Amino acid sequence: ILMSERVLLVKIDKTAGGSQRLSFSEPIGICYVSSYLQKQGIECRLLHLIKETARDELFSTVREYNPTVIGFSVRNFNFNATCACISDIRVEYPDVVIYLGGECVTWQNATELAAKANVDLAVVSDGEESTYAFLSGRSPDEIPGIAYRTPKGLYTYSPVPPKRMDPSTLPMMDREELPMHAYSAEAFPGSKYGTMHTQRGCRYKCTFCHTAGRYNNGCACQPTSRTYAQILGEIDYLTVHFQIEALAIWDEDFFADTNRVLRLASGLIDRGSPVQWHTYMKLTDLKSRELRKILPILKESGYVRAVIGLESFIPQTLRHYHKAGGPNIEESLKYLSDQGISVCPSYIIGEPDETESDIEYGLNHLLRLRDRGIQMDLPYVSFITPFPGTPLCDEYSHKGLLIDENWDHYDGENVIVKSLCPTDRLVELRDEFYRSFYGDRQ
To answer: If you ran DSSP here, which 8-state letter would residue 246 be given?
Structure first.
């Protein structure tokens, strides 16, 4: 039965650029599912689409490939577009099995999303093993971390909780049918660009983040890593097979194990530092003396930028987000600047209790950091976005603070939460910050 399956895995994405200077890169989640299924002998294809042209390209591929199963990777901003495509597919191809996975599918909202999208199941957490188990014909109530439609048409959860895959057991993510030549990032202008994960999991539980809701039923977890040979081998493959010159490693908690980072950086130096690269970094990571010691080695390995979620300089806002701050932020960031490593800060405005003066103070403080010698580029200022399935969304919904429930707008670029600062002024403050930071380059 499995050998007769033809699986099409789809992600509908946003175009690059915009006020957030978005990159355009591989849909990592479905790339891993594809490689895992192919390893089990199941025919699988990837389709990475841009929202504006998604429907026509999707139907062209479906007609040519004739899949028996279609899996969609969803985030909040592409959920409505995905649902529209699914609705059309149901009309023309009523026998195709359709399922959802992705960042916004959590243990709290999976049945709701599955029902809204009219799919056969939704996968919470890592999708590789659960998808294969479903294709193998296992009873849905035995498959970890799914919501599924019963024979009566109702949606329910499997009693088996989500399972986090050990990434070292997975094959390298499948990129063969992707438009690798088209991927780019403003952080690496003119460079051939790729992305990857080296581990899964996060030790933290930020209230605006999906991760804890996808793993361990709302609990934080210690990340688990791929092996050094796997990680360095994948980088070798990217640089040789696709001539990748710049790399983003999008692990949510990359610096959880400093010894691991040191070994990876040393391995890249041994290879002649074949790529420039950057990662997420947490402000608390810089409290580690061990990490500060290896910053020169990181720099030598080609590490050029730390993407750091500062999020706010207002203490009560940080407490609400479950984020760390404190008075020594400038001192911590200076460790990076001293090694020639740039800081790409993300900062959130529009929390309900923040006043206009709070927001002006925070954005001005961000500018002052740059003016005081912190090497800073590509700052990312977003409006607080309580993604459905997160504790923050539950709280704001209960308090009646959501002023926009169109998920197309849940992308950080639109004001969707009522705050003490008027919506028009929030947009003005963000735009004024960007004009101050970029000047004529804006």
So the answer is: E
Half-sphere exposure of 151 (CA within 13 A, CB side): 2
Beta strands in 197-273 (DSSP E): 199-200, 224-225, 246-249
Residue linked to tokens 């977890």: 221
pLDDT along the chain (442 residues), means of 10: 80 74 84 96 94 92 96 93 96 96 87 95 91 93 94 94 88 94 91 95 74 55 91 97 96 94 97 96 93 97 96 85 74 96 96 95 94 93 88 90 92 93 96 89 52
pLDDT for the residue numbered 1: 47
Tokens 């002023």 belong to residue: 403
Question: Cβ atoms within 10 A of the Cβ of 41, count?
Answer: 9
Contacts of residue 180, defined as CB under 8 A and 6 or more positions apart, other chains included, come to 26, 192, 194, 242, 244
Query: In the prediction, which pLDDT does 222 show?
Result: 83
Cβ count within 10 A of residue 374 = 19
Residue 113: name the closest of 60, 150, 149 by CA: 149
Residue 242's alpha-carbon distances to 34, 214, 231, in angstroms, are 19, 32, 16
Identify the pLDDT of residue 414. 93
- DSSP assignment string, 370-398: HHTT--B-S-EEEE----TTSHHHHHHHH
Q: Which residues pair with 121 in a beta bridge?
A: 99, 148
pTM: 0.91
User: How many whole angstroms separate alpha carbon 357 and alpha carbon 437?
Assistant: 19
Provide the pLDDT for residue 148: 96
Asked whether the beta carbons of 384 and 351 are under 8 A apart, the reply is: yes
Length, in residues, of the chain: 442
Burial (Cβ within 10 Å: 0-12, 13-18, ≥19) of residue 51: middle
Q: What are the φ/ψ torsions at residue 327 (nearest 5 degrees)?
A: -80, -10
Q: How far apart are CA 59 and CA 228, in angstroms?
A: 40
Query: Cα separation of 298 and 281, whole Å?
Result: 13
How remote is the C-alpha of 244 from its chain's centroid?
A: 21
pLDDT at 21: 60
What is the C-alpha separation between 13 and 105, in angstroms, rounded?
Answer: 16
Q: Which residues contact residue 164 at a Cβ distance below 8 angstroms, ignoring those fewer than 6 apart?
A: 125, 126, 200, 201, 215, 216, 221, 224
3-state class (DSSP) for residue 100: strand
Q: Using CA atoms, how far apart are residues 393 and 402, in angstroms rounded to an integer?
A: 9
Q: Distance between CA atoms of 42 and 3, rounded to whole angstroms?
A: 6
Contact criterion met (CB below 8 Å) for 388 and 104: yes
Residue 179's contacts (CB-CB under 8 Å, 6 or more residues apart) are 48
